[in-house]
Inverse folding.
């Protein structure tokens, strides 16, 4: 097959038609099966090189009758091969995305002049603004082309996330750019989102460009886990980064699968705000009278005391007045409601539904230690926090804890940033922070998005160095405004049309990418999209295995693994 | 060893796009359908053409003889040996050689009456058909009065053998590719040619 000398690029066709708004059409000169949808291609035309993605393959014939007739049965094999080669063809549709000025023929005087006069801006690929000419050569991208666009692993801040599907050329993500805006990892259940998240989180921890706050709802990330399908051991982040990662357990005696956390987190009852309760409307099945009742409680007892006071009230408690009539006791819910012109039934109902909160073991009158400060100090100091929910695995815990903690952290980061901006000589810029959120649709759906801190973070907090990394299987359930703020989207297979539409919302060429998403392999194939990547690309993601760790850290084992191996060999019993 | 040119007849009538040669009925070198022939026009210019028809006219005597129930062999022989009606060989002009250079353009002037027509030798076939990029196909393909499929099949078969002897067996494949490219928008025309080619014996 025709190749060029540079980077083993392979010629696959030539331009026959197209336009800038839709796509370019390429006549294929190699067998159809050698090219796949999603392949990264390079088009050379004079002094420019164009980069694009194959979005469609279409069979054609110079006359439909050539396609209808099976000439192999009528003519000699040599004749039918020749006939089919000229009258039957395959056209590709290529979505052009970037262009780069490569100048005249290298080695010529014109090239030397051009090279000396070019500026740094023209040395970078730019969004495509024109199209190549007819018959421009189309080639599969070589390793050099991929590195030109996506960066090289050897450069600081670039992390290899996977490789191109056809030829296995490494594809990198610019981590510094990734954390500048909120981003998302999406895919249907079982497509490997958690593994991909582990890979990216490992890269971020290693690069030390930001601190991570990981809400580990299902205790998957911090400690070693077991894959649900293969039952193989999956290393946790703590084991691989023992000094960079701290595991936080929820509740005073919070353990995670029998293992003790680095420290524990409790919330004081004074920390709970009315908006935290409103966030749980669906979870607690609260009524529309709830906001009014909460307002009255705050008015009566203050923002810091309303919760503990309301908790202490005795519902249904009655006393006899001087006439012997039974009336609500002053320390009862009903008594307070009557006194404050609040509907007694509404107040009693709210108290009843809030019993689930009153019994939470991590919500205490006086926390034993200031876990929240410890978390903030660790994050500011460049460490990464994995908040494992342990036995508190239901939605109520997740919604409440993530919102409360993030609200406090957001406030802190705003203060730090404002302090730095006011007096940069006295206050250093706060460390960038990425908040990792699984099941994001529970917190960021249309109904709740306006009430949660996460919506604010997604929309505004990149100015303060705080961004989200959402991991979710139902992106269609995430509020549109939040989705539109996601810079980088890494997406595995999605089956639901609404989910596909949601992931592609706001992106150029989304119609072309739609089918590509639905045809990804269920595991290990993902598409990189959005602002954070130079162009959309289908890749085979790295595997989260010993090879990955060896490449990332230079060794496969951690101290924990070594001690286990020694034990298995019979030493140190 | 220098090959002796094979005379196949003399020119009877001509135009720029074709000519008709005549010869005796019993001539031993009667050219086959699809044969490449040449006719010198002057000392610098020759026209090249393909035989596309061979025609024998009747006359009054033959018309009477065929009605006889039996025909003695000597009568048949006499009619063939001594007949004054020529075999007419129709030839389509497909190129020229001018000052030794082959071209698939038509010669600027037609040949003249009684010019001798020669059958091309294998080397001449190779040289003529290799010149340029099969431009002579256009003369054949645009003439709707020709039996295009059979003519091309016959010509390509002969040319294939010549190129095989000259050391270029791939010529045949290139020629078929070129035909397909030229006819790929003409399904009936291309199928006509392909059907004829498929009847050729494989080598």
């Amino acid at each position: 097959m025709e190749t060029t000398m540079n980077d083993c690029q392979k010629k696959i066709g030539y331009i026959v038609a197209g336009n800038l708004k839709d796509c370019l059409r390429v006549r294929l000169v190699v067998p159809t099966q050698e090219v796949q949808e999603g392949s990264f291609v390079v088009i050379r035309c004079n002094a420019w090189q164009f980069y694009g993605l194959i979005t469609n393959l279409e069979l054609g014939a110079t006359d439909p009758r050539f396609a209808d007739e099976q000439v192999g049965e009528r003519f000699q094999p040599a004749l039918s091969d020749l006939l089919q080669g000229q009258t039957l063809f395959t056209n590709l549709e290529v979505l052009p995305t970037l262009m780069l000025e490569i100048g005249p023929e290298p080695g010529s005087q014109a090239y030397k002049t051009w090279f000396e006069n070019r500026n740094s801006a023209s040395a970078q690929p730019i969004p495509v603004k024109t199209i190549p000419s007819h018959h421009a050569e189309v080639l599969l991208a070589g390793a050099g082309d991929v590195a030109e666009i996506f960066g090289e692993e050897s450069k600081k801040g670039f992390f290899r996330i996977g490789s191109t599907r056809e030829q296995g050329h490494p594809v990198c993500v610019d981590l510094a750019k990734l954390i500048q805006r909120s981003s998302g990892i999406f895919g249907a259940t079982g497509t490997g989102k958690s593994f991909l998240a582990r890979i990216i989180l490992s890269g971020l921890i290693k690069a030390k460009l930001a601190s991570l706050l990981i809400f580990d709802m299902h205790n998957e990330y911090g400690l070693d886990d077991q894959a649900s399908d293969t039952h193989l051991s999956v290393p946790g982040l703590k084991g691989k980064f023992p000094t960079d990662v701290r595991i936080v357990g929820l509740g005073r005696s919070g353990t995670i699968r029998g293992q003790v956390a680095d420290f524990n987190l409790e919330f004081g009852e004074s920390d709970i705000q009315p908006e935290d309760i409103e966030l749980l409307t669906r979870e607690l099945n609260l009524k529309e009278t709830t906001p009014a009742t909460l307002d009255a409680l705050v008015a009566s007892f203050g923002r810091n005391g309303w919760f503990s006071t309301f908790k202490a009230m005795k519902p249904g408690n009655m006393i006899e007045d001087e006439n012997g009539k039974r009336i609500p006791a002053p320390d009862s819910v009903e008594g307070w409601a009557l006194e404050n012109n609040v509907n007694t039934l509404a107040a009693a109902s709210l108290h009843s539904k809030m019993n689930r909160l009153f019994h939470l073991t991590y919500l205490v009158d006086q926390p034993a230690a200031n876990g929240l400060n410890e978390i903030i100090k660790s994050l500011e100091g460049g460490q990464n926090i994995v908040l494992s929910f342990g036995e508190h695995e239901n939605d109520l815990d997740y919604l409440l804890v993530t919102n409360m903690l993030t609200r406090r952290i957001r406030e802190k980061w705003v203060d730090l940033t404002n302090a730095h901006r006011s007096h940069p000589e006295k206050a250093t810029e706060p460390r960038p922070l990425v908040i990792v959120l699984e099941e994001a649709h529970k917190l960021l759906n249309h109904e709740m998005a306006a009430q949660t801190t996460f919506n604010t973070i997604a929309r505004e907090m990149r100015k303060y160095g705080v961004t989200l990394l959402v991991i979710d299987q139902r992106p269609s359930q995430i509020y549109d405004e939040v989705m539109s703020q996601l810079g980088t989207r890494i997406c595995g297979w999605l089956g639901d049309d609404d989910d596909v539409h949601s992931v592609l919302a706001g992106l150029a060429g989304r119609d072309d990418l739609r089918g590509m998403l639905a045809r990804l392999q269920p595991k290990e194939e993902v598409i990189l999209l959005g602002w954070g990547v130079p162009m959309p690309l289908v890749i085979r993601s790295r595997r989260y295995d010993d090879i990955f760790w060896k490449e990332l850290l230079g060794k496969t084992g951690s101290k924990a693994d070594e001690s286990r191996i020694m034990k298995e060999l019979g030493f140190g019993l | 060893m220098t090959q002796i040119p094979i005379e196949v007849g003399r020119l009877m009538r001509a135009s720029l796009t074709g000519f008709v040669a005549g010869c005796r009925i019993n001539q031993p070198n009667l050219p086959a359908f699809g044969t490449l022939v040449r006719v010198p026009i002057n000392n610098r210019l020759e026209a090249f053409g393909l035989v596309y028809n061979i025609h024998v006219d009747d006359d009054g005597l033959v018309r009477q003889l065929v009605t006889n129930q039996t025909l003695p062999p000597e009568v048949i022989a006499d009619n063939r040996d001594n007949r004054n009606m020529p075999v007419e060989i129709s030839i389509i002009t497909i190129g020229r050689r001018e000052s030794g250079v082959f071209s698939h353009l038509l010669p600027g002037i037609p040949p003249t009456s009684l010019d001798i027509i020669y059958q091309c030798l294998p080397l001449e076939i190779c040289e003529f058909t290799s010149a340029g990029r099969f431009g002579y196909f256009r003369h054949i393909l645009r003439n709707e009065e020709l039996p295009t499929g059979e003519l091309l099949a016959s010509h390509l078969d002969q040319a294939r053998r010549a190129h095989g002897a000259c050391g270029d067996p791939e010529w045949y494949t290139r020629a078929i590719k070129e035909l397909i490219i030229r006819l790929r928008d003409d399904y009936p025309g291309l199928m006509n040619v392909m059907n004829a080619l498929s009847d050729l014996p494989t080598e």
